[in-house]
Amino acid sequence: MELGGKFKMSKTHYDCSGYATKADMRCSDGRTIRKNAFEECDGKRVPLVWNHEHNNPDAVLGHAILENRPDGVYAYLSFNDTDAGQNCKTLVQHGDIDRLSIWANKLKQVGGDVIHGVIREVSLVLAGANPGAIIDSVMAHGESSDEEAFIRSGEFIVIDDMTHSDKEKEEKEKGDIKVEENNKKQPTSSNEKTIKEIFDDMTEEQKAVVYALIGNALEEAGVKPDEKKKEVKHADSDEGDDAADEDETVADVYETLTDKQKKVVQFLIGQALADAGVSDEADEEEDQEVEHSYEEGENNMKHNIFDSETNVQDQETLSHSDMEEIVKDARRLGSMKEAFLAHGITDIGFMFPDAKVVDGTPGFIKRDDTWVQEVMKTVHKTPFARVKSIFADLTEDDARAKGYIKGNQKAEEVFKMLKRETTPTTIYKKQKLDRDDALDITELDVIAWLKQEMRFMLDEEMARAILVGDGRNSSSNDKINEQNIRPIWTDDDVYTVKYAINITKGTTSDEKAKAFVRGCKKSRKDYKGSGNPVMFMPEDLLTDCLLLEDNNGRVIYDTMEKLATALRVSKIIPVPVMENLSRVKGADTHYLGGLYVNLNDYNVGADKGGEVTMFDDFDIDFNAMKYLMETRASGAMIKPYAAVAIEFVGKTAEMTEAA
What we know:
It is built from 18 helices and 24 strands. By secondary structure, it is an alpha+beta fold. 26% of the residues are buried.
């Protein structure tokens, strides 16, 4: 014995051993026992107790000598000569009890990590304990003012050969398998009997149970077994004794296995999971989700398939004969669901689950909205809706400065004043939802989803009106007044330059694309807007431009950046709503090829209170929830010649025939 209550461990005078706790194991409450947390307990002798009974001296079974290791605290157990001690020793040797637990106090934590503690006792616990570490925190008093805990490592006890009688040694030499502390090493025996030999000794019924257990373990791990599981009859609580004798349950057959065979089954299941790619980390993570009910009295927990006690639950079961009757009734009733209900299966949701939305909320089938964001983000905004623009035209010859000849009369300078005023209009989006539908739809926030749709469509309509107009007939009650939101494409020639490219019905796509690139370059001299403009164009024409090849068959513009440089714009934005847009002027039809503009030269104004506003109301008469999203704004170019529209122009009569 050493000073300080520590003992030198004799490897020849203990009855059994095992890990009292494992290091770096995450517990279900989120805490992790770190390496060397119980380092000061190395060599310490503590009581060996039954199930943490601290108020009963008869529950003291012996003592344990602790050994601190890199992967946890290992305990060497020695039973006393009391009836309880010898009884538990027999239970351990027989394999009826194979788990350890500790009680520790003076726990110190850093965040979720337990970095220090003192082990006060080691307990034998039932096999049904959680295979992962569980800390059941309790209040402590006096010296135990720091937090204390019961910690179950879930490790197996290793029975030492040197401490058993000669008779016990002979029994072990007959083939008992020693299960190591991690329970994952391949079982061996002193007489070199292999796993295959042990498995071959099983009956066909026992082998069928093994296959079923392996398949069940793979399914719970999310792995689809390669082979179909053999049929195994499960318990039907209503069947008589005769049926029970004829159709044994999985638990009944499993209990017929010897301890050696049970350990082989455990090894085979672990090997199957490892071969299927289920990692130890995944196993530990799954174990950590299990909520142990030993201390807290919880009703539900994941269970060990080898623990017959925890498998007994008041749950409905189906035998194969029941299924045959249900199938027969389904043919008669015309519904499997009705057949199950007729046989008393009330939790039908597990067999016939409702369909679920994959992404949580319904998606939208919509056009690409990149251009909408670009328009709404880059237009110039003012906090007033009535906008007036005044310009003096100094390009006419009469506005030029003149020379003076002596004796002649000086003439006044003459130039035109250009003035226009733009007033606001209202753009709105209205929706109605029956209140019953709003209450019945529980899988998503239907109101928030509806508002999202309204805002998107309002922004798209506003952006469309700014670039090319809403496209509705002028007689439509829903048309956005083009005197209030002035489209850039059809705006006055003072603000939007129209560059025409003549085409015929025989003009090819390549010819149009080449002419478009050429037209953009040549029209650039007419652009008087701010900075470098952005090109808005339809996707089809953009694709035709990118497919242009030189005389050697090489693509001229292999990226949009190169094409943008050739068009003399900062970037190109495809606009889906610009496809096949046209306007008729005189005898000609003008097809929009694209327009480039710096939207900072386009002003969108809204008075206070005229910004985007959401209203909702309830219609009592029709039990409907109504929603209105609207804005009152004006929009117009505020700088002359700040936009250029490239148009393909053809004779209307000819183009109509071609169509």
